[in-house]
């Protein structure tokens, strides 16, 4: 099984994933961003797109990597990864479905004011990350048009990371 934790950049996906992993027996965290980083390391570089998710190889490589890891280890993969393009989500989902891999798709949501406050106070990437701020509107658009209908939404506005992880883990265990 895959527990996919989606949401905008700065929503707390990576933190939640690490905590969810501790709550789900035989689970591992697989950050699909590492697949994108591998593609970014190709020299000379792939055509410039501004986002590795736009490279056609990224999506099937995420599917294949997840499939091979699950074939090798069994259990659950917890995948913290923002996917805001519906076509990309459908491609990944169809690829996983072809292998019979069940996916529980969660979206960490908070209102814009809360997200801006979290981004402003980020101690890892630094305050007011232009990258993270630039994804707030695309996230809001995806949330309005398709994303929230395709996932289990966890409103993290008033939740701690531990409470968020517990909600996800309890939903998966049910």
Automatic annotation (TrEMBL):
Pfam families: AAA_33. This is ATP-binding protein. Keywords: ATP-binding, Nucleotide-binding. InterPro entries: P-loop_NTPase. GO terms for molecular function: ATP binding. It comes from the Bacteria.
């Amino acid at each position: 099984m895959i527990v996919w934790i989606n949401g905008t950049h700065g929503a707390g996906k990576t933190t939640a994933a690490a905590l969810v992993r501790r709550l789900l027996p035989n689970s591992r965290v697989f950050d699909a961003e590492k697949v994108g980083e591998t593609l970014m390391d190709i020299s000379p570089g792939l055509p410039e797109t501004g986002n590795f998710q736009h490279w056609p190889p990224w999506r099937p490589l995420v599917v294949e990597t997840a499939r091979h890891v699950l074939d090798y280890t069994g259990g659950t993969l917890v995948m913290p990864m923002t996917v805001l393009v519906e076509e990309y989500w459908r491609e990944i989902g169809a690829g996983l479905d072809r292998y019979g891999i069940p996916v529980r798709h969660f979206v960490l949501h908070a209102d814009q004011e809360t997200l801006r406050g979290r981004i402003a106070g980020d101690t890892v990437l630094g305050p007011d990350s232009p990258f993270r701020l630039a994804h707030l509107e695309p996230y809001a658009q995806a949330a309005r048009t398709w994303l929230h209908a395709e996932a289990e939404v966890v409103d993290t506005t008033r939740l701690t990371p531990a409470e968020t992880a517990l909600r996800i883990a309890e939903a998966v265990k049910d």
